[in-house]
């Protein structure tokens, strides 16, 4: 059971590959390089909507999260492009069909 649980979060099929970088694949990784950042932005957008969108603090927080994660995703995307010659050209950094 413990071995099965430790394998669930891995991007690698073989644990011996743990010291090498691989291109992430599957699910949202097929369209963006940083789907975990996109998911976090979606969560903060939900928080903003749930709060009614009337508080300036929530808008500032949302703006900071979008800006910070967009910059980080852009750097991650550029790193993937430099690191892997065969990195999928159709992927965007964080927002599908936009950036």
From TrEMBL:
InterPro entries: 3-oxo-5_a-steroid_4-DH_C, Dfg10/SRD5A3. Its main location: membrane. One of its GO terms (molecular function) is 3-oxo-5-alpha-steroid 4-dehydrogenase activity. One of its GO terms (cellular component) is endoplasmic reticulum. It is a multi-pass membrane protein. Keywords: Membrane, Transmembrane, Transmembrane helix. It is found in: Endomembrane system. Residues 15-99 form the 3-oxo-5-alpha-steroid 4-dehydrogenase C-terminal domain. Pfam families: Steroid_dh. Pathway: Protein modification; protein glycosylation. It comes from the Eukaryota. GO terms for biological process: dolichol-linked oligosaccharide biosynthetic process; polyprenol catabolic process. PANTHER family: DFG10 PROTEIN, POLYPRENOL REDUCTASE. This is Polyprenol reductase 2-like. The lineage of its organism: Eukaryota, Viridiplantae, Streptophyta, Embryophyta, Tracheophyta.
């Amino acid at each position: 059971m413990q071995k099965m649980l430790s394998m669930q979060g891995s991007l690698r099929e073989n644990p011996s590959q743990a010291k090498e970088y691989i291109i992430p694949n599957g699910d949202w990784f097929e369209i963006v390089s940083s789907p975990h950042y996109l998911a976090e932005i979606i969560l903060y957008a939900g928080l903003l909507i749930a709060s009614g969108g009337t508080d300036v603090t929530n808008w500032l927080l949302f703006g900071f999260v979008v800006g910070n994660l967009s910059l980080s995703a852009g750097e991650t995307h550029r790193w993937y492009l430099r690191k892997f010659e065969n990195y999928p050209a159709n992927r965007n950094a964080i927002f599908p069909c936009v950036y």
